[in-house]
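User: Here's a structure from my thesis project, written as structure tokens. My advisor, Dr. K., wants to see whether a designed sequence matches the one we expressed. Can you design one independently, without my sequence as a hint?
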């Protein structure tokens, strides 16, 4: 796996160490990988939300909609 080196100001280094301990991470690498993965997921979600906002309006999600959906999955 490729490696990178990052220099942090002392305040950020202290914060990083606190987050590793508080979050139950084994080391700072695990914490940073988790941060990057969460950011990737957030951007993917933002893109999906933008796509949905720009799409045509769907049917109303009322009780009848959920009843149809429930019976569709119960029939499987």
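Assistant: Designed independently from the structure alone:
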């Amino acid at each position: 796996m490729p490696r990178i080196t990052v220099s942090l100001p002392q305040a950020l280094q202290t914060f990083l160490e606190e987050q590793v301990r508080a979050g139950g991470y084994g080391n700072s690498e695990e914490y940073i990988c988790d941060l990057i993965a969460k950011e990737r997921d957030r951007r993917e979600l933002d893109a999906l939300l933008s796509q949905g906002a720009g799409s045509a309006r769907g049917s109303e999600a009322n009780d009848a909609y959920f009843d149809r959906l429930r019976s569709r999955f119960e029939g499987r």
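When you compare it with your expressed construct, this may help: The helical segments are 10-23, 28-53, 63-74.
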